[in-house]
Amino acid sequence: MKLQIKNRKTINNILLALVIVIFLFSAYKLINIYVEYHRGTKEYDKIVKAVIENSIPQNIAEEVIENSNGKEQTHNSLKVDFEKLIEVNPDVVAWIQFDTPEEINYPVVQGPDNAKYLRTTIEGKSNTAGTIFMDANNQKDFSDKNTFIYGHDMKNGSMFGKLSEYKDKEFYDQNPYFYIYTPDGNEIQYKIFAICTVEDFSSSYTYYYEDDEQYLSYLNHIRGIADYDTGVAPTADSQIVSLSTCVRGASRQRLLIHGVKISETMGEE
Q1: 53, 114, 176, 207: least CB-packed within 10 angstroms?
Q2: Which residues lie across from 241 on neighbouring strands?
């Protein structure tokens, strides 16, 4: 009997030790994740402070635009110091900005493939946040019919972690625009026309089209599988940008936010 009690105590002690080890390991992993998030956010905050300044036109405090409900809202353009940015990383091809969610305010790079910047920051540091990057197959001047830009769905809301807010149509109605700034000084305005949840190897990731008919078929396809109807219908002459991120809790699914180019302001360069 005493031996049984002793064995039971030994087993309980072993189980307790295992629980403590698992707890400590989990805490270690969580701390590492927090530290990586903090380092990534700190790096990009530093980049923003170094290369961005709000650009307010003379005699015009803010640009007035209309949201999807026809209500007026404002947009402050950015002035990006691309010379300084390209000194940090020569792979920089653009800057992307949302007024809301304002967390999306990042440089865009293009690597030799679509793997380089998945776990590498703009300063070349290893980090799960990676960098917002353009598809390696696209033209860096946004001259393609469809340009893909990828970013991680970070749990702290950084990178493309806030794109999921567009699953809510009311949020979309209030915030249908995003902006791309290019090294030649241009600002391109896009209006979101489709929010789609797709599989990771979906045909929605097509970027080459043989003719206008095939391109229109693609546009109709993504509008057909969209979460809701935005009322925005691109044409065969349209150029679009497709923003891609993961879907939390569904490893094989992706969220695609498609925006159509509606205006371009030429820079001074």
Answers
A1: 53
A2: 147, 259
